[in-house]
Model the fold of this input.
Amino acid sequence: MPIEIHTPLLKVSSLRKFFRISNSRIPILDAISFELGLGEILGIGGESGCGKTTLGKTLLHLIEPTSGKIEFQGLDLSQLSPTEMRAQRQHMQMIFQNSADAFNPRFTVKDILAEPFIIHRLHRQVDLNEKISTLLNQVGLDTHYLKRYTHELSGGQKQRLAIARALALRPKLIICDEPFSALDASIQLQTMQLLTKLQKEFKLTYILISHDLSAMRNFTHRLAIMYLGQIVEIGPSPAVYDQPQHPYTQALISAIPITNPKLERLRKPVILKGELPNLLQKPQGCPFQTRCPHATDICRQVKPLLQEITHQHFVACHLRLKV
Amino acid sequence: MSDPLLSVSQLSLFHQSQQQHTQLIQEISFFIQKQEIVGLVGESGSGKSLTAQSILQLLPRKNFKISGSIHFEDKELLTLSEKELRQIRGKRIALMSQDPSAALNPTLTIQTQLLEGLCRTNSKITKKEAIRISTEWLERMHVPNASLRMRQYPHELSGGTKQRIALAMALISEPALLLADEPTTALDMTVQAEILLLFKELVQKNQLSVLLITHDLGVVANCCDRVLVLKAGHLVETGTVDEIFSTPKHAYTQSLLQSKRNLLAYAN
Done:
């Protein structure tokens, strides 16, 4: 069930990010606003190129936002000095997409897990060896991996190591960028179980970025769907999943294959025509109009804003289709 | 039932190095009929891609030894010379590899790459004619702005477009069999649905057969007729899609299905 937000851990308001390519400014994130409660798991879905990863990185100020405000535990991150920001980074971590590339290949498992403590100058205050073996233990890796290099680990083990590293400084918020892609179903399940266990144990808050919505329905409390740098729908996961309101969400959900050939044959996925519009010539009005099967005149002129249709379920669509 | 298009029997693959001798594929036998989509599933490392590469004998002969028999259109592929094999590869059996970005040459335009395949299989064709056919194929793969795409380089294109171009490249010489190695893994769900629909269309219209390698059982349920389940180089179960999904016999198939179901039903 969705968690009622009493004290938001993270509050994002009108976040914008432009990238500069030659002489044009490309809007990658466009007026993103949401709140995240302590202990909540928020899923962010959408096609590749819609800005999911940029959003994740911007939230941690790994990329500076162009405008807008990110408040973490009541602190406006853009007002912090580099030293203060560094202190806050202990509480916010990221598990990067493709764990294999996120490690220094010349580091052993031990080096990788020691690095966060060294960066934050904690290595003299704590018993590093003990900390590292506890971390390995928590993610279910044996201590005999300490001297191994990452190329010696399997995909699932690397994923566990990435989780252990993110967990090292006991953060409050972890942003997981595609933690399940490229893993077999059984390993995906193990990773998911591990993330849940750790979430309960340490009262973690997750933002889970994934283009694969199938696994997110029951794992996340709330689900946000992004299109061209905007959130087009956000709400409690079961509601977004079972009663998607935005035509784009409907297409995404209908495209998930189900593992029952008899039912699968009866289903007709909504096939979206065309490609994402060029961001340099982003259309006026609704960003989805070029591919929307229901687009009308108002969609071509006025940009729809997020509106609450049922409790906590927001949609940015003029038509607000019923399924 | 007519003769199958491809019939593989007792296929084994060995890897030899100075230190050791490993058997990677263990005497697997299967067949593919005309106009059939056969799914090859298994966890990563089970030998799915190696099976496809063995059929076309793309692995370096120095280290890899293949035994058994691969019968395709009245020919025994394992006895053919390298020259004769070249008449099969790409022309009669096409391979579409896992990552479309890696399959395309970053320094050549799409046109050059499409024409390369076409002119190699048909030496009499004029350039103008080849361009027309290539553009037509791109359109058939629902690539938007096909004539513009022909002049572009791979880095200018999105993942979905690249995948459709890779598919056009594989199909342009109208092969009888397509070995598609994880053709939709790198794609978004919406593009995946589109590509799978395209497969089904092509199989009906173009007399194509497909060996679809995937680790996603949802994809298999969507478009395959039959399924082969591979585990550590052993073919542990074969059957129609309905059989495999409703009454899986082998414990490994059951666990594959179960883990997918657990994943979907996973409650936080």
Notes: The longest strand of chain B covers residues 21-32. The longest helix of chain B spans residues 189-206. Chain B touches chain A through 41 residues (CB under 8 Å). The CA atoms of residues 157 and 240 of chain B lie 37 Å apart.
